[in-house]
TrEMBL record:
InterPro entries: AB_hydrolase_fold, BD-FAE-like_dom, GDXG_lipolytic_enzyme. PANTHER family: AB HYDROLASE SUPERFAMILY PROTEIN C4A8.06C. The lineage of its organism: Archaea, Methanobacteriati, Methanobacteriota, Stenosarchaea group, Halobacteria. One of its GO terms (molecular function) is hydrolase activity. This is Alpha/beta hydrolase. Keywords: Hydrolase. The keyword Hydrolase applies. Residues 24-220 form the BD-FAE-like domain. It comes from Halosimplex aquaticum.
Length: 263
C-alpha cells in the first residue's frame, strides 16, 4: 500500500475582504509520481459549520490509490452568504491546477467530491463549468469529473414554508426574497452538454436528505445526455464516508472505482 504524505494548512485563497486566508490540506502518494489525477474535496456541515479533515478516510483512501487530494475550507454562512462559499470552492480547483507541477498532478484530470453541503458544492462547481470564477482568473475551475456524496441538488421548487433555516442563512433569505439565488445555487439548473461525468452517491436510509433527490439529479444528467452513475448504498445513512459504519468502505471504494474509470 502506498504511503501518504499530508501537507497541512496550505494557503490557497486570500480574499481581500478577509483578515485570514483560506487553507487546505494536501494528501498525496509518497512515491514521487507525476501527472497524477487530483480530487478537490469539500466538507459538510449545512454550509454553517465544519472544516477540512472531516473526510480524511476518503482522502487517504484515494491517495493510497494514486490520487492527490486537496481538502479545502470555504467561508461558512455565518460569515458570508451565497455565492461566496461556492467561489471559494472554485478557487480551490484553480489552486490545484495552478500548482500542478508542484504536486505532480495533471491539470486536465481534476475532479470534485464532497459530503452533504460539500457534496452540493462539488456538484455545483462541476456543473457550473467555471461560472463562479472571477473575470480575471488565469485558469478555469472546470473539472473532468465529479462525485458528490449525500448532497442537495435542486432548490428551485422551494416554497417559503419549505425552505429550512440552513438554506435561508446560506442563501441570504427565503425563495420569496432571493428567488434568483435558489435558481443559481441548484446544480440541476446548470446541467448542460458540458457537465462532466458524475457519480451521484447516496444512502437509501438518509433521513436528512432523502435519496430521491439524488435519483432526480441523476435523471436530469441522463436526460441531458451526460455520463452519470447513480450509487445508492443499501443501509447507508447521511454519514456515508464520514461515520465508520459497514458501508463507509463501500462508499470510498465506489468513489475510487468511478474516478479510476473517469479520470
Amino acid at each position: 500500500m502506498t504511503d501518504v504524505t499530508v501537507d497541512r494548512d496550505v494557503v490557497f485563497h486570500r480574499p481581500p475582504e478577509r483578515e485570514s486566508p483560506l487553507e487546505l490540506d494536501v494528501y498525496r502518494p509518497d512515491d514521487g509520481g507525476t501527472d497524477r489525477p487530483a480530487v478537490v474535496v469539500y466538507h459538510g456541515g449545512g454550509w454553517i459549520e465544519g472544516e477540512k479533515g472531516q473526510l480524511e478516510a476518503l482522502e487517504r483512501g484515494l491517495a493510497e490509490r494514486g490520487y492527490v487530494c486537496f481538502d479545502a475550507n470555504y467561508r461558512l454562512s455565518g460569515e458570508a452568504t451565497f455565492p461566496t462559499p461556492v467561489e471559494d470552492g472554485a478557487a480551490a480547483v484553480r489552486f490545484a491546477k495552478e500548482h500542478a507541477d508542484e504536486y505532480g498532478i495533471d491539470p486536465d484530470r481534476v475532479a470534485t467530491t464532497g459530503h452533504s453541503a460539500g457534496g452540493h458544492l462539488a456538484a455545483l462547481v462541476a456543473a457550473a463549468d467555471g461560472d463562479f470564477d472571477p473575470e480575471d482568473a488565469t485558469v478555469s475551475s472546470k473539472v473532468a469529473a465529479s462525485a458528490p456524496i449525500s448532497g442537495a441538488y435542486d432548490m428551485r421548487d422551494r416554497t417559503p414554508e419549505a425552505a429550512n433555516d440552513l438554506e435561508r442563512q446560506f442563501l441570504g433569505g427565503g425563495p420569496d426574497e432571493v428567488p434568483e439565488r435558489y435558481e443559481r445555487v441548484s446544480p440541476a439548473a446548470h446541467v448542460d452538454s458540458a457537465t462532466p461525468p458524475t457519480l451521484v452517491l447516496h444512502g437509501d436510509d438518509d433521513d436528512l436528505l432523502p435519496a430521491d433527490g439524488a435519483r432526480e439529479y441523476a435523471q436530469a444528467l441522463a436526460e441531458a445526455g451526460r455520463p452519470v452513475e447513480l450509487g445508492i448504498l443499501p443501509g447507508g445513512g447521511h454519514g456515508i464516508v464520514v461515520e465508520p459504519e459497514d458501508w463507509q468502505d463501500r462508499g470510498i471504494e465506489t468513489v475510487a472505482d468511478f474516478l479510476d474509470r473517469r479520470l
